[in-house]
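Demo today. Your pick:
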Amino acid sequence: MSMEERERVVESLPAEVTWAELAMPEGDLHSEGKRQALEALRGYFKQQRRRVYVGSELPIYYPGERRFAPDLLVVLDVEAHLRGKWVVSHEGKGLDWVMEVHVGGDRKKDAEHNVRRYARLGIPEYFIYDRARERLEAYRLPSPEAREYVRIEPRQGRYTSEVLGLELQLEAAKLRFWAGNALLLESEELIDRLREMLEGVQRRVDEEAEQLAEEVRRREEEVRRREEAERRLAELQGELERLKARGE
């Protein structure tokens, strides 16, 4: 098959999945869980200036496999441009990291079927964010050749992702990502943080402006008093001169 023929085949692949292939809609808990993680990861890798693609519910095509659309996926060392699908044979590599967000319905799909499937496909790490039970589950291939996951055990409540170079933790019913001791913020949190910083800077500017105005007022008062004292001194000197003149 020529390159042009291969391109036409890739282009013809659907960029959407059917309702039968997707889990039933699970409401805000499901969509927010994906959105928050997506924003945190995209913001982090963009700040790091790394070539990393982070996507959500993208149709995935592995050779000889039924397509699927994970809630969240990460592929390292590729361009981060927008895509309608991920075709492994076309992109030249498979997924590096996958997360499914579970809220309701049949848990076996995420907790059993996908554990076997993603391991068989050679996806290095798989995380399950179970919002119904408020817990994380994490799996890793022990070697590039392995096709069976081992569990990632948490340390002090955090799960280490070797693929992402980050730690994941559930905190106050929210999934958090940590880069060392630095918490990855979502866009809304970044906006709030920047707004607080801006308000703090504005307060300092206002305080300094008030201090400057007070200093100006104080100096103006000193000038006024000095001018008044000089005027009074001049009057006294004039009076003294007149008294001397009379005495002579």
